[in-house]
Design brief:
The complex is a heterodimer of chains A (about 230) and B (about 250).
Chain A (H helix, E strand, L loop, with lengths): L6 E5 L1 E7 L2 E10 H9 L3 E5 L14 E4 L22 H16 L4 E4 L1 H9 L4 E2 L2 H5 L12 E7 L4 H6 L4 E4 L4 E2 L6 E6 L4 E5 L6 E4 L9 H11 L1
Parallel strand pairs in A: 1-4, 1-5, 5-6, 6-13
Antiparallel strand pairs in A: 2-3, 7-10, 8-9, 8-11, 11-12, 12-13
Chain B lengths: L4 E5 L1 E7 L2 E9 H9 L3 E5 L14 E4 L22 H16 L4 E4 L1 H9 L3 E3 L2 H5 L22 E6 L4 H6 L2 E5 L5 E4 L4 E5 L6 E5 L6 E4 L10 H13 L10
Parallel strand pairs in B: 1-4, 1-5, 5-6, 6-13
Antiparallel strand pairs in B: 2-3, 7-10, 8-9, 8-11, 11-12, 12-13
The chains are: A alpha/beta (about 230), B alpha/beta (about 250).
Keywords (chain A): Hydrolase
InterPro entries (chain A): Class_I_gatase-like (IPR029062), Peptidase_C26 (IPR011697), PuuD-like (IPR044668)
GO biological process, one term (chain A): polyamine catabolic process
């Protein structure tokens, strides 16, 4: 009998990708950092191509990572699209279905960047569509391919405060942010007030972070997810 | 609804997409669509530190196409044209042996068929042009050799062995697309049940002692003929006790 690691599903997206002799081939993909972060924390990662037919795949999952990516369609929270908003409606539909079903099952969920925004919208919340318009600066997405690095402050006693401990530096890359957190509790903010972490204490483990813990393969967060999933 | 859950071996690859360029876990969507179109639910299995526990969660598995298998796995020196990924090889050979041991329904596509042979003690020809004197099994990337207006390059027939399971599924003869330069020499524990009639290259293998184990050298997921995927999903439904009703939708 092999030892079963907790199976952690990671949502993926479909983009035309180019490698080797292949050019712009529709490909389902997610940055390998997510896989490495889950593996390093003791989980077995499986990648979930978008599929809006059903959520039956949840049957085999012990935990779910909602990964980063494009902007959520603002119609999901009743707003008209801003000019800077870039969406992937098919992914939205599939992930919203999956996230809602995961919450219903009380499956441990970690939302990263877009994933945190998706948890927020699933909880009836809303987003700022372009943070520079709200904040007057671009420090959460300094330049293409460059992560903004800053300190975040966490609510004492919250799950994320316990996980992060003393080292509260985060790496982020986003231009949208949480406005109204809906049914979620905001437990972390940047100095400029931007929401950095949300939680849902009604569930076993529902944590959303606006930054990218997979880039540093942060065992504090992925370890907590895998532990909750075990 | 509960669809048979089909694992697809994926890979970690440096790719460019949009304005991004990085290593991603990935697989062409054609495989995912083939599984979904035939009633399964696809999940991607990335190469991992040795561990086959994920098989416990699956009803069937597809070993997908990709780069060359390292000839060290059958004790040969690499050909100058051989380009392999040892991490993916190690992970897939381990997964293949465990899947066969567990009698999980297995479909091998292109490289996947080659992994079936090598995992069970077989071997490959490393560069077909050296063997058959031409490169017509390797269509240009991105082309569709089966399209009406395409040249015959990368398109050929397969003749199936009478009495084989593959022949019951696919008939006596079919025309396929072809994107490879390695090919089976020794099929390991599998039986060769179809060849290209022009040059005798092995095109399809099976093992009737298993609930479902079929390998094809061509790329059905890039065509409208998804019969081998349908057969895999059906076998996965049967062996996991779902029955055919699961596929009715």
């Amino acid at each position: 009998m092999v030892k079963m690691r907790p199976v952690i599903g990671i949502t993926t997206y479909v983009e035309p990708a180019t490698w080797g002799v292949w050019h712009n081939l529709p490909t389902t993909l997610v940055p390998h950092d997510y896989v490495a972060a889950v593996t390093g924390a003791g989980g077995r990662a499986v990648l979930l191509p978008p599929d809006d037919l059903d959520t039956d795949v949840l049957r085999i999952l012990d935990g779910l990572v909602l990964s980063g990516g494009s902007d959520l369609g603002p119609e999901l929270y009743g707003a008209p699209a801003a000019p800077q908003t870039v969406t992937r409606p098919e992914r939205d539909a599939a992930e919203m279905l999956l996230a809602r079903a995961a919450l219903t099952r009380d499956l441990p969920v970690l939302g990263v960047c877009r994933g945190m925004q998706l948890l927020t919208v699933a909880g009836g919340g809303t987003l700022h569509q372009h943070l520079p318009d709200v904040l007057g600066h671009d420090r959460h997405r300094p330049a293409p391919g460059v992560y903004g690095e800053h300190e975040a402050g966490f609510t004492p006693g919250s799950r994320i405060a316990g996980l992060m401990g003393e080292d509260t530096r985060v790496h982020c890359f986003h231009h949208q942010g949480v406005d109204d957190p809906g049914t979620l509790t905001v437990t972390g903010r940047a100095e400029d007030g931007t929401v950095e972490a949300v939680e849902d204490p009604r569930h076993r483990f529902v944590l959303g972070v606006q930054w990218h813990p997979e880039v540093t393969r942060d065992k504090r967060l992925f370890g907590a997810l895998v532990e909750a999933a075990a | 609804m509960r669809r048979p859950l089909i694992g697809l071996t994926a890979y970690a690859q440096h790719v460019q997409y949009g304005s991004n360029e990085q290593v991603v876990g990935m697989l062409p969507m054609s495989y995912v669509r083939a599984v979904h179109a035939t009633g399964g639910r696809a999940v991607l299995i990335t190469p991992d530190d040795p561990g086959t526990d994920v098989l416990e969660s699956l009803d069937g598995i597809v070993f997908a196409g990709g780069g060359d298998v390292d000839p060290a796995n059958w004790g040969a020196e690499p050909h100058p044209a051989t380009d392999s990924d040892p991490v993916r090889d190690a992970s897939e050979l381990l997964l293949m042996r465990a899947a066969l041991d567990a009698d999980l329904p297995v479909l091998g596509v292109c490289r996947g068929l080659q992994v079936m042979a090598v995992a069970t003690g077989g071997s490959l020809h490393q560069h077909l042009p050296d063997l058959v004197g031409h490169d017509r099994h390797r269509a240009a990337a991105g082309t569709d050799p089966l399209a009406v207006d395409s040249s015959a390059f990368g398109r050929h027939d397969v003749v199936l062995t009478p009495g084989s399971a593959a022949r019951s599924l696919l008939g006596a003869r079919l025309t396929v697309n072809s994107f490879h330069h390695q090919a089976i020499d020794d099929p390991g524990s599998f039986t060769v049940v179809g060849r290209c009639p022009d040059d005798r290259v092995v095109e399809i293998i099976e093992d009737r002692n298993r609930s479902f184990a079929l390998g094809v050298q061509w790329h059905p997921e890039r065509t409208g003929d998804l019969r081998v995927f349908a057969a895999l999903v059906e076998a996965a439904a049967d062996s996991s006790g779902l029955g055919r009703t699961a596929l009715a939708a």
